[in-house]
Amino acid sequence: MPKVRNWQINREMDYPYEAAFPERQFAFVINTNRCIGCQTCTMACKSTWTFSKGQEHMWWTNVETKPYGGYPAFWDAKLLKLLDERNPDKQVWEEKTFRGQTIFEGAPPHGSRVMGYLPTDQDWATPNLYEDNAVGPKGEVDKLHETGEQLPVHKTWFFYLARLCNHCSYPACLAACPRQAIYKRPEDGIVLIDQSRCRGYRKCVEACPYKKSLYRPTTRVSEKCIACYPRVEGKDPETGGQRMETRCMAACIGQVRMQGLVKMTKEGDWAEERQHPLYYLVKVAKIALPLYPQFGTEPNGYYIPPRWVPRDYLFQMFGPGVEEAIERYRVPDRELVAVLQLFRRSNRIIYRYEIEEGPKVYESEFHGKPFTLYDDTVIAFGEKGEELFRTKVEEPFLTRPDKHINWV
Q1: Helix (H) or strand (E) segment spanning residue 312
Q2: At what angle do helices 322-330 and 311-318 cross, to 10 degrees?
Q3: pLDDT tens digit string along 37-52?
Q4: Same structural domain, 66 and 195
Q5: Per the domain annotation, does 89 fall within a domain?
Q6: Which residues pair with residue 290 across a beta bridge?
Q7: Are residues 380 and 305 in the same domain?
């Protein structure tokens, strides 16, 4: 089996195909600290792509309540258990390097090229099971901690995890397909299924650790998130020729999502683009982390971890760097505060940002560290260098008039 470099686990690993990378890679960052679990993204995707017969169980994007929720049910707990069974020494991280076996290296010696499982019909039956269910004292049902709300880590907690296909650099669905019906687009790394080649073997459903490849019984082929590629290409009638974010990203009312296209190197890492907002969040500020990097797929979906959740749980979910990411997010520096204002200010894809410095408006100390807030202006630019929008750190303060214009 060929060796490929996976920068998220900081080592080479086994993968069924030689490494190949797009010019730019579809990627996104989701801020779990802001997600309110409204399911607007879920329904935006559902009403756009999966409203037909045979798609009733399909939720290409969904929001689940952690730690108990998941769709299909317990998808991550089941995969983590399989990983533990394949790793006698458990899932070991040596600082930033994962020393355990990935889902490719832990695959059975005969048969499937990827370690995985097929969810049951019952697993697919309840997309909102355990929604808003909080963790209380261990072993005690329907009971919450009396002081469970106190920071920095809550004793009673849950958080919302918004999920869609990660359009991985090393997709498990692609690796497992015996028909070679799954491919990554060379221009943007979006992972698609050629339905003319698919024969519905469901190997992709079994292999995808995030369970975002789904089988449609009415057509007997698999389907998955297509990253709204007409919008990303600028060919959707709504776009006016401009590259736009996906439906789930654009519909988010909690301002938790940002999607873009990052430049790739020939070695498979992100090329340096210091003023690209995604590059800054992932590579410079390092507050956005991949979801279950130990799976080995090198997902291109990144999450800012929730700051109130026990760190051992977050470490399992996002790998090393969780503590540092939360510390930087809790007391952000001047540039990070500015970049966070770019989330959901527009549905157009941002390629670059600039910051125009403004006056100091607030100064204090948080968590034992000094914090200063400046009313800077953040400017977002598009693919051709055109200005998309500008926004300020301080939101405008509006006062309702004493008399409404429609009052008599």
Answers
A1: helix 311-318
A2: 110
A3: 999 999 999 999 999 9
A4: yes
A5: yes
A6: 302
A7: no
